[in-house]
Amino acid sequence: KGLPPSLTAIPPGCPFHPRCPKAQDVCRTDRPPLYDVAPGRASACHFWEETISERGDRR
Ligand code: SF4
To answer: Is residue 43 within 8 Å of 53, Cβ to Cβ?
Structure first.
């Protein structure tokens, strides 16, 4: 929900944290690296493993 951040005022940490329902403290301070999650797939979320587990697959 919400709007993308201004390109001239990108939030610290993960740029999605102000509007992400899963944001935690680390999201407000540390920008997530790009994690290799499967062949040809990557994620820039600190909690990608939990999200995949909740979905029950590796789409
Ligand atoms: S790192 Fe993941 S959980 Fe944290 S704010 Fe960004 S998208 Fe949401």
So the answer is: no
Which residue has its alpha carbon closest to ligand 1 atom 5? Answer: 17
Whose alpha carbon is nearest atom 2 of ligand 1? 45
From the list 47, 52, 55, the residue with the least C-alpha distance to 17 is 47
Q: Is residue 10 part of a domain?
A: no
Domain hosting 34: range is: 17-55
Tokens of 43: 């994620």
Q: Summarize pLDDT for 24-59 with one digit per residue, the tens.
A: 999 999 999 999 999 999 999 999 999 888 877 655
HSE-CB of 9 using CA atoms within 13 angstroms: 4
d(CA 1, CA 26) in angstroms, rounded, equals 20
